């Protein structure tokens, strides 16, 4: 079926169709849209700390469109990539679809009630009022794309084309094509199925055609196999894509077309050789990500999804895990283009819930439909290497028929796609966690989470989870590195993946991953910070952390190699060095006012350090300086004077600590391999704030409505050094062929909104997001703050590809 983007021309109101859309004033809106991010957060909202204290409710959308180019006999559907949540879809007053799960795509058939040649009215209700229903921020509304699909009476249904590469070789590769054909004519038809494969340059490399007989009112599946000689294989370093062009031909006329990008690649796993891509062993350098986009809330813009992948790729990641739900198609498209592997995950809960109103209420009735939606929609993406059927579900340990449901779901996934391994993330047993807390006398959350690892031989974890994990091809271990060596001997046939790991124990986790061939990768929680699970990585000074979450106004998890603006954190630089992405040392300074105090944080967090040597008023105060380095030795110099050399690298788990008395000037770290200098990093004290500086991630964006430019706003001194303690209120003005849609910082305690035109700087910087509005031209952006020299820039907006 042909599809057309259906994101523009909508309006919305708060409330149900009758008491919202009919009575309340409506507002125009361009999808994707998250109604929650624009409303103030409140401590008494039922979403609570898990949901970032955000508003959630009922939003009704309306769009009127004229069915001028649609003829009798055609099938017309709407494809919704994601509606949060409890979606109801009406056309001309008729209910045509409902869908409770907010993360899976679904179809609404408009055909029976469509008025051809006349104006039609679409109503969509997004009801996210039943709170709490998530352990993280969910947003509210039609937060992903909507597509209008049209096809003839004989057509290929959405997600009905499936491409696999059963044979991959340097000289010859085989491409298997499965094509669903729906015949709604009421009569038997003879249908030609034409398949043409083109390479990344548009050249035809293989083609084939077959004729089938399609009975009336049936859907059948055809299968073809084509060969490609000397194919270019898809990999993380060379993500080469091919395109399958499928056509249905009836009486010499093409009645339907589908275009399916795919990659030619092979994936295998086993406990002796681990994970292999195209036959080459590869450890997964992974990160978990949630679906939100920080300042944008849940709204899923293609550029926002792409930027996520670009950030992680730049930091050495080669894999992501979509925690704990299927991601937006645009994210997978970006992973295909840029070379990022994906664990695609379905659910955070099964029949037993974790939140009062979460998916467990609908699992029995909907799990098959939602699993099918995920697998059929995403199975042509070469980036997807595993299907995950759950995360830390309550049924894991001999509970509520968990083993039966694990088996049932794994088999169902394989019935839809047998080419990829099935996994899920398994946690420690809460009973054993609580027993160890009592054993060690842990009285706070941070103490409990930082207890020494238990002896795996004394745990009942392995015995009580054995039947549950038996159906899995890869067993996902969440925070269980102490079991890697033990379980390699205990379960020699088992392939393990560290599906969640602590950032603060990165060195130990990665070392254990490299040491064990049956452990195929490590996925840190998290790669990018997110809204909700407020304060899971909070830092406390001289006070115990008594709860998993932090009280209002804390609204960010505060963990992640990147913060919600996409700025790198110290732990990201540590990982860069661990993975060999960065050769120079990194200097992480503890603010002098925190020196000597008890720092408390969970292993999801990190010390409150930064790459700054600017602490006015702290002259003469002692502080701690950490240097991250993989080389043999580190020397630290203050204003040219050596403060000593220390052994670094693996001996020190890549972190060396110096005690330093703060004095303005330059702080310099020099690394050595033997007697030779191998790296150097310098921090310089900033002068007083003087001006604003603007740096866009792209100076040219597409005129297609919804393309984005991310503009970093920094407060700098006269030498251009960022002033990290500057907190000026910054105002942003945008004019021309674009609009400002978000402005924000990574301050987890701020009560400011992420919409509007001004925001207080945090650590000397902010981020503004500018959106194109569907026309060519230029966008002018100006940033102003009292007492600082303003800054401005121009962005180009043009048609076509960049």
Principal-axes geometry comes out as globular
Total DSSP helices: 11
Total strands: 47
What is the CA-atom radius of gyration, in angstroms? Answer: 27 Å
Beta content: 35-45%
Structural notes for this entry:
The protein has 802 residues and is mainly β. The chain folds into five domains: 2-150, Jelly Rolls (Sandwich), CATH 2.60.120; 169-262, Immunoglobulins (Immunoglobulin-like, Sandwich); 271-576, Glycosidases (TIM Barrel, Alpha-Beta Barrel), CATH 3.20.20; 583-684, Immunoglobulins (Immunoglobulin-like, Sandwich), CATH 2.60.40; 691-798, Immunoglobulin-like, CATH 2.60.40. The chain is built from eleven helices and 47 strands. The strands form eleven sheets. Strands 22-23-24-25-26-27-28-29 form an eight-stranded parallel beta barrel, surrounded by four helices. Helix 2 packs across helix 3 and helix 4 (363-378) packs parallel to helix 5. It is globular, with a radius of gyration of 27 Å. The relative contact order is 0.08. The model has no long low-confidence stretch (mean pLDDT 95).
């Amino acid at each position: 079926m042909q599809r057309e983007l259906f994101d523009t021309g909508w309006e919305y109101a708060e409330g149900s169709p009758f008491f919202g859309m009919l009575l309340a004033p409506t507002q125009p809106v361009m999808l994707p849209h998250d109604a929650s991010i624009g409303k103030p957060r409140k401590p008494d909202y039922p979403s609570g700390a898990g949901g970032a204290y955000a508003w959630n409710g009922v939003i009704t959308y309306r769009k009127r469109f004229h069915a001028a180019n649609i003829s009798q006999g055609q099938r017309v559907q709407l494809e919704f990539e994601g509606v949060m949540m409890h979606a109801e879809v009406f056309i001309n007053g008729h209910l045509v679809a409902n869908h409770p799960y907010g993360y899976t795509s679904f179809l609404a058939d408009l055909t029976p009630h469509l008025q051809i040649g006349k104006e039609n009215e679409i109503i969509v209700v997004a009801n996210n009022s039943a709170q709490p229903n998530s352990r993280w921020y969910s947003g509210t509304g039609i937060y992903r794309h909507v597509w209008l699909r049209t096809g003839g009476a004989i057509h290929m249904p959405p997600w009905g084309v499936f491409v696999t590469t059963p044979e991959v070789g340097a000289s010859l590769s085989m491409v298997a094509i499965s094509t669903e054909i729906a015949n709604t004519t009421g009569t038997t038809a003879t249908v030609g199925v034409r398949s043409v494969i083109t390479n990344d340059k548009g050249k035809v490399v293989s083609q084939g055609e077959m004729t089938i007989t399609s009975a009336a009112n049936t859907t059948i599946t055809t299968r073809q196999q084509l060969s490609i000689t000397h194919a270019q294989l898809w990999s993380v370093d060379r993500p080469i894509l091919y395109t399958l062009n499928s056509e249905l031909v009836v009486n010499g006329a093409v009645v339907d077309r589908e275009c399916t990008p795919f990659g030619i690649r092979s994936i295998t796993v086993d406990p002796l050789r681990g994970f292999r891509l195209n036959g080459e062993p590869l450890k997964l350098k992974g990160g978990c990500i949630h679906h939100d986009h920080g300042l944008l809330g849940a709204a899923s813009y293609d550029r926002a999804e792409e930027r996520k992948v670009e950030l992680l790729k730049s930091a050495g990641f080669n894999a992501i895990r979509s925690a704990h739900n299927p991601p937006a198609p645009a994210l997978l498209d970006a992973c295909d283009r840029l070379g990022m592997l994906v664990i695609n995950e379905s659910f955070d809960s099964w029949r037993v819930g974790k939140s009062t109103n979460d998916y467990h209420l609908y699992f029995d009735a909907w799990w098959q439909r939602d699993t099918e939606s995920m697998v059929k929609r995403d199975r042509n993406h070469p980036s997807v290497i595993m299907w995950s059927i759950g995360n830390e579900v309550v049924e894991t340990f001999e509970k509520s028929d968990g083993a039966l449901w694990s088996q049932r779901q794994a088999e169902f996934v394989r019935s839809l796609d047998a080419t990829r391994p099935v996994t899920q993330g398994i946690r420690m047993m809460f009973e054993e966690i609580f027993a160890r807390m009592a054993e060690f006398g842990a009285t706070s959350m941070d103490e409990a989470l930082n207890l020494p690892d238990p002896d795996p031989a004394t745990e009942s974890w392995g015995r009580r989870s054995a039947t549950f994990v038996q159906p899995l091809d890869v067993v996902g271990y969440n925070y269980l590195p102490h079991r890697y060596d033990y379980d390699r001997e205990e379960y020699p046939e088992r392939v393990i993946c560290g599906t969640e790991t602590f950032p603060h124990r990165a060195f130990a986790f990665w070392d254990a991953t490299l040491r064990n061939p049956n452990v195929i990768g490590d996925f840190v929680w998290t790669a990018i910070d997110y809204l909700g699970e407020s304060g899971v990585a909070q830092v406390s000074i001289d006070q115990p952390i008594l709860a998993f979450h932090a009280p209002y106004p804390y609204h960010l998890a505060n963990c992640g190699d990147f913060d919600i603006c996409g700025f790198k954190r110290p732990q990201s630089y540590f990982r860069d060095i661990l993975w060999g992405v960065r050769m120079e040392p990194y200097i992480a300074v503890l603010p002098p006012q925190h020196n000597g105090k008890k720092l408390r944080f969970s292993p999801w967090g990190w010390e409150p350090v930064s790459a700054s040597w600017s602490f006015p008023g702290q002259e003469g105060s002692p502080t701690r300086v950490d240097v991250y380095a993989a080389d043999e030795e580190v020397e630290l110099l203050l204003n040219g004077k050596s403060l000593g050399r220390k052994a670094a690298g693996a001996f020190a788990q890549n972190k060396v600590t110096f005690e330093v008395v703060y004095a303005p000037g330059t702080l310099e770290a020099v690394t050595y391999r033997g007697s030779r200098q191998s790296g150097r990093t310098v921090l310089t004290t900033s002068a007083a704030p003087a001006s604003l500086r603007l740096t866009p991630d792209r100076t040219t964006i597409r005129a297609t409505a919804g393309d984005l430019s991310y503009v970093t706003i920094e407060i700098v001194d006269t030498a251009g050094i960022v002033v990290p303690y500057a907190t000026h209120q910054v105002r942003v003005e945008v004019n021309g062929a674009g609009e400002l849609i978000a402005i924000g910082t990574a301050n987890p305690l701020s009560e400011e909104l992420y919409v509007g035109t001004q925001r207080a700087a945090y650590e000397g910087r902010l981020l503004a997001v500018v959106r194109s509005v569907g026309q060519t031209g230029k966008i002018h952006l100006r940033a102003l703050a009292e007492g600082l020299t303003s800054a401005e820039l121009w962005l180009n907006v043009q048609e076509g590809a960049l």
